[in-house]
Design brief:
The structure holds 2 protein chains of 2 kinds.
Chain A (H helix, E strand, L loop, with lengths): L28 H10 L3 H23 L2 H17 L11 H17 L1 H9 L5 H6 L7 H20 L2 H12 L4 H8 L3 H19 L4
Helix pairs in contact in A: 1-2, 2-3, 2-4, 3-4, 8-10, 9-10
Chain B lengths: L10 H11 L8 H13 L18 H20 L5 E6 L2 E5 L2 E3 L4 H8 L3 E7 L2 E6 L3 E5 L4 E4 L10 E15 L7 E5 L3 E5 L3 E7 L2 E8 L1 E6 L6 E4 L2 E6 L4 E5 L2 H19 L1
Parallel strand pairs in B: 8-9
Antiparallel strand pairs in B: 1-5, 2-3, 2-4, 4-7, 5-6, 6-8, 7-8, 8-11, 9-10, 10-13, 11-12, 12-15, 13-14, 15-16
Classes of the chains: A mainly alpha, B alpha+beta.
């Protein structure tokens, strides 16, 4: 099952790396936490959740383009994690594992009637999205420009076919390199590179003259 | 990250990459975040936020098959239904009784409506009633006749009709649509089986007479004796006492059957 056997990385919100997580050696706090997560200790689950919820939700949001769907996907991801907690490897960073689960959940959702139906009714200018996507700058003009730019990018991204969108999100938003994208998507390294290249070309075509 | 193995892009591609990478990180709504944490730590997950869209009830497989079967049965029943009886002509003075209803001969539409799928018909007075189930069967009731008329035979099944002549003269002619069907006509003395022919069943107080103008019919005497095949141009007389004989058909019967043919011919052949 692709959703088990987490590779690496301890950062909560972005780049899973190849290396083992810092301090994940025997007896490290990280490893101890994962051991307790395996035992479904509520406190450890809480810490685990706080550490990774933004990673999962952010990725789902970028993939699905809608808050409600992203919440649904995040719920599904943590449900799967809870069910598979006893198979968690404390020696490995769970972040890539979570990225894989989230990607698979989003792809399942894409292929479901629920996603197609919601996309028909959804508007990418979700006001709740604008609120959550605040840049935090104290500059309304720059915020407005940034918000418009984000909206354009997100709208163009949502128009891409599912495989291309996944490649862009994992590479540019999530920060995975092509080899990691290939692992998450279970495709060859070269295929991941070509897919990303095609995705970038398609996105560039859609955004030409608008950025 | 992946700058080293990234897309060897030009300015446009770089701008797109920058725009994607520069996007802010979305964060979950605090209420959702707290709820999901509670669910995750307790292991008690609620119902999914997005209800799984239910297929309309009429598209569920469990219902679809019986519904399709039901529709097929209904379509089959409707398609199998033979034509309704129509009144070709009702001439003479008197009344036509269909069941408990009584009509003047001029009320042909009403007679046809009452007789659509057959029923008990009684002719009072000097009325001659020509009926046809288009393409299948024609029946002419002479004055004074009372009979039970069946619905026309079905198209694919239920291809057997059963009529009964209580009194009087009834003339039967079959059309092309009758092919493969059969009609039994009963009287108190005989039972006549026809499978495609023109014949008359005359029932009088003395007995029954079956006259065959075309084809042949099988006549069975109800009081006993073997069934007889009556060929074209012959008639079978069966008295109330059970006596039976086969004789040549009378000119009058031939004439009456010809009359019927000329009256209902077009409708019968349709």
């Amino acid at each position: 099952m692709p959703e088990t056997g987490p590779p690496s990385q301890s950062s909560a919100s972005s780049v899973p790396s190849e290396e083992s997580p810092a301090g994940a050696g025997s007896g490290s706090p990280e490893r101890e936490l994962l051991e307790r997560v395996r035992a479904r200790d509520p406190e450890a689950l809480g810490q685990f959740y706080e550490r990774y919820v933004d990673l999962v939700f952010g990725l789902a949001w970028r993939m699905l383009g809608e808050r409600v769907l992203a919440e649904d996907a995040a719920s599904d991801v943590f449900l799967k994690v809870h069910r598979a907690a006893d198979r968690l490897d404390p020696a490995r960073d769970p972040a890539p594992w979570l990225v894989t689960i989230t990607t698979n959940v989003c792809r399942d959702l894409w292929r479901s009637g629920a996603y197609r139906m919601s996309r028909r009714a959804a508007d990418v200018d979700d006001p709740a999205a604008a609120a959550v996507l605040s840049t935090g700058r104290n500059d309304p003009e720059q915020d407005a420009i940034g918000s418009e730019r984000e909206r354009l990018v997100q709208a163009a991204l949502l128009e891409l076919p599912e495989p291309l969108r996944t490649a862009i999100v994992l590479h540019d938003y999530q920060g995975l390199d092509h080899r990691q994208v290939a692992e998450v998507l279970h495709i060859a390294h070269d295929a991941a590179r070509k897919r990303y290249s095609r995705a970038l070309t398609a996105l560039e075509h859609k955004l030409r003259g608008r950025l | 990250m992946s700058q080293s193995d990234g897309h060897a892009g030009d300015t446009g591609a770089r701008a797109v990459r920058d725009a994607v990478a520069a996007r802010t990180h979305a964060r979950p709504d605090p209420a959702f975040r707290a709820r999901l944490k509670q669910e995750f730590t307790s292991g008690r997950f609620g119902a999914p936020r997005l209800p799984v869209p239910q297929r309309p009830w009429f598209t569920r497989p469990a219902l679809l098959l019986p519904m399709a079967a039901g529709l097929l049965v209904v379509a089959g029943l409707l398609g199998n239904r033979g034509p309704d009886w129509r009144v070709v002509s009702a001439r003479g003075d008197g009344r036509v009784h269909v069941g408990a209803a009584s009509f003047a001969p001029a009320e042909q539409v009403q007679i046809a409506a009452a007789l659509r799928r057959g029923g008990d018909v009684r002719i009072e007075g000097a009325v001659t009633l020509d009926l046809v189930a288009p393409g299948v069967l024609a029946v002419t009731l002479a004055p004074g006749t009372s009979m039970t008329l069946p619905a026309a035979p079905g198209r694919w099944w239920s291809r057997h009709g059963r009529a009964r002549v209580g009194m009087g003269d009834a003339y039967f002619s079959t059309g092309r649509g009758f092919h493969g069907a059969s009609l039994t006509v009963g009287t108190p003395e005989v039972e006549v089986l026809a499978v495609g022919t023109a014949f008359a069943v005359l029932r009088h107080p003395q007995g029954s007479c079956v006259c065959v103008m075309e084809g042949s019919v099988r006549v069975e005497t109800l009081s006993g004796g073997e069934a007889v095949l009556v060929p074209e141009g012959m008639r079978r007389l069966v008295g109330v006492s059970g006596t039976a004989e086969t004789l040549p058909i009378l000119e009058d019967s031939v004439h009456r059957l010809h009359e019927q043919r000329s009256s209902v011919g077009r409708a019968l052949e349709r």
